[in-house]
Amino acid sequence: MSQDTHVRQLIQTNILNKKHISDRFMPKFFFVMAFVSVFTTFGIIITLVTDAAKFFSQVPVAQVFSTKLAPLAAEPSFGILPLITGTIITSMIAMLVAVPVGLTAAIYLSQFASERTRRTLKPIMEVLAGIPTIVYGFFAYSFVTPLLMKLIPTLGAKNALSPGLVMGIMIIPLVASLSEDAMNAVPNIMREGALGLGSTRLEVTFKVVIPAAISGIMSSIVLAVSRAIGETMIVTIASGSSKNFTLDITQSMQTMTAYIVEFTSGDAGSGTVGYYSLYAVGLILFLFTLVMNLIAQHISHKYREEY
Predict the structure, then answer these.
(1) Of the candidates 78, 60, 61, 56, which has an alpha carbon nearest to the alpha carbon of residue 69?
(2) pLDDT tens digits, residue range 169-226?
(3) CATH code at 208?
(4) Burial classification of residue 141, based on how many CB atoms lie within 10 Å of its CB (0-12 exposed, 13-18 middle, 19 or more buried)
(5) What share of the chain is helix, strand, coil (3-state, %, to 5)?
(6) How many structural domains comprise the chain?
(7) pTM (2 decimals)?
(8) 146 lies in some domain
(9) What is the pLDDT of residues 292-302, one digit of tens each?
(10) Is position 19 within any domain?
(11) Does residue 38 fall inside a structural domain?
(12) pLDDT average, residue stretch 87-106
């Protein structure tokens, strides 16, 4: 018997003879902790589906996907298209701000800024992500909206434009940070090779670094969209509660999250159709964010470059 085989047998024997309680207990503890998020997710899904089913059993599908939303009227109507439209429009406005600004910031920090400048600017930029969203909501309502009203006279006191712009500002750190990480993951040898062939730093950025980091960049954008769709306080404060179906961003709109906040404040009695409509809207919102996350994972796996 060789010495290596003898050592392996000794190791296996010692492992089998271990009497420490922690060696038997800790793997089970770690297993339970690992599945806490899984159990929580299943609990959320069961809750949403169970109560949303009660809503859909009482409201015809044709009415659910209509443009009339009047849950507290004498003859209530529960068309959710105004909520979906408001959510999509405010999210699109936010992305029109967050994507170009966030990507530009990421390009500068990863490709052009010195190490000292990067260490200074990145923490300052990421402070935006730590500001409570209710503060952003008051900022949108009391500062951005009055400023925009001077530029757009027809802008309403509650509108979709102002919260959309402020949501974009809030999401900038998410796009910039994740995109910068993706760009920094590109090997320096690829940059050096392109520079050695005579490319400028700008050409290296757009023709080498960004194509190589496109997986991480696209994932950051899709995750930012999910963040915008799920935002609550900014749109609740600055966008208003108008349930009219409109595409006019200068007018008040209500998003799915704002609708849930409004009704959970006490307008919907427990067990009523309006109460169960909260779960229906929550289920649709859950599906929206789930689809966005699946898209992000698909893009990340499809375009990932291995170095």
Answers:
(1) 78
(2) 999 998 998 898 888 888 888 888 888 888 888 888 888 888 888 888 888 888 888 8
(3) 1.10.3720.10
(4) buried
(5) 75, 0, 25
(6) 1
(7) 0.82
(8) yes
(9) 888 777 777 77
(10) no
(11) no
(12) 92
